[in-house]
What we know:
2 domains, elongated, mainly alpha
Amino acid sequence: MRRMATRTxxxxxxxxxxxxxVRRTTGLPISEVLKQGLRALQEKLGGEAGGxxxxxxxxxxxxxxxxxxxxxxxxxxxxxxxxxxxxxxx
Length: 90
């Protein structure tokens, strides 16, 4: 049989207000509200952490060259072009 852990948590006034609102709305005890919050965060993180860098990049669909205005081998030209665009006189 597993023992349940006891935790002491400090909540700022905003978090305490949210906790009370969720309790009033759902009728759930504090422990259940916190457990469901942890599960929701776990699910959210599980969806984010599993992706390979290329898979994440391919979802961005930046198009050919992405947002780059110059190749990485010529950063000076890129900075020059960006500054020229930013400070172009009308």
